[in-house]
Design brief:
The protein is α+β, with helices and mostly antiparallel strands. The chain folds into 2 domains: 2-76, OB fold (Dihydrolipoamide Acetyltransferase, E2P) (Beta Barrel); 84-148 and 186-242, no CATH class. 37% of the residues lie in helices and 22% in strands.
Length: 243
């Protein structure tokens, strides 16, 4: 078995005295593991860091085997990602979210979204808005997508301001009035006519409150796990800068 693909390193762990098992989110083959022989050498370690893009060739005798990687760096981001808490905790949070998905299952749109988020981790407010959208995409791929296009009560597509914590459907301002204390706020950057790449501190807080609720309800609680600490650290670092 052998294939080639583009990928982004999202994690590594030691194997033996000199090698690494490298975890890569690939464009067409999903999240995939493989062995890099001599991966702990001074020559290879710099480009085997989370956040770096690579051209990857995977080879194994059988498809179910771990296999080995032959990797060539195409874009080195790790150095500047490590310069700020937003960068460090951002790539760690993204990796943790991708591990919620089955291994070796293609998610092209998430790969492309990962590239976009990584390219904006130097811009805190933009990165935060993009990560909220990334979390919504993760929920959608896990089968718990939110419907933010029209009001659940009236069918209206304008003036959407809230989200039902039970159904994950949007609610218009008018329909939300009697239930404001029970509904989640819908940040405007998530709407089709909103600014998708910028958000205020209030928007960011509302966005992460929204995704936290549904991640906890549908993903973490049923699995008996908790939200990764890196995510909380990312949110704290972002709010410190934009707040």
């Amino acid at each position: 078995m052998e294939w080639k693909d583009q990928g982004i390193v999202i994690g590594t762990r030691k194997h033996g005295e000199t090698s690494l098992i490298v975890e890569i989110m690939t464009r067409h083959h999903g999240r995939h593991l493989g062995l890099v022989r001599g991966g702990r050498s001074r020559k290879k370690q710099p480009f085997l860091q989370p956040g770096n893009s690579v051209e990857a060739a995977w080879r194994a005798r059988l498809d179910e085997h771990l296999g080995t990687w032959q990797l060539e760096a195409t874009e080195l981001r790790a150095a500047w990602l490590m310069e700020s808490p937003v960068g460090i905790f951002g790539i760690q949070t993204l990796a943790a979210h991708l591990r919620l998905l089955p291994e070796r299952e293609a998610h092209l749109h998430l790969y492309e979204a990962l590239e976009i988020v990584l390219s904006h981790l130097e811009e805190s407010s933009v990165a935060a808005a993009l990560l909220v959208r990334f979390e919504i995409a993760i929920l959608d791929d896990l089968g718990f997508g939110l419907d933010l296009k029209k009001c659940a009560a009236t069918g209206a597509t304008q003036n959407l301001t809230h989200v039902s914590p039970k159904t994950g459907r949007a609610v218009s301002h008018e329909a939300a009035r009697p239930w404001l204390d029970k509904l989640l706020i819908l940040p405007q950057f998530l709407l089709a006519n909103g600014n998708r790449n910028e958000a205020t501190a209030t928007d960011i807080d509302a966005g992460f409150t929204l995704t936290t609720h549904f991640l906890d309800r549908h993903v973490y609680s049923p699995r008996g796990t908790k939200s990764p600490t890196e995510r909380a650290s990312f949110i704290k670092a972002v709010m410190r800068q934009v707040g």
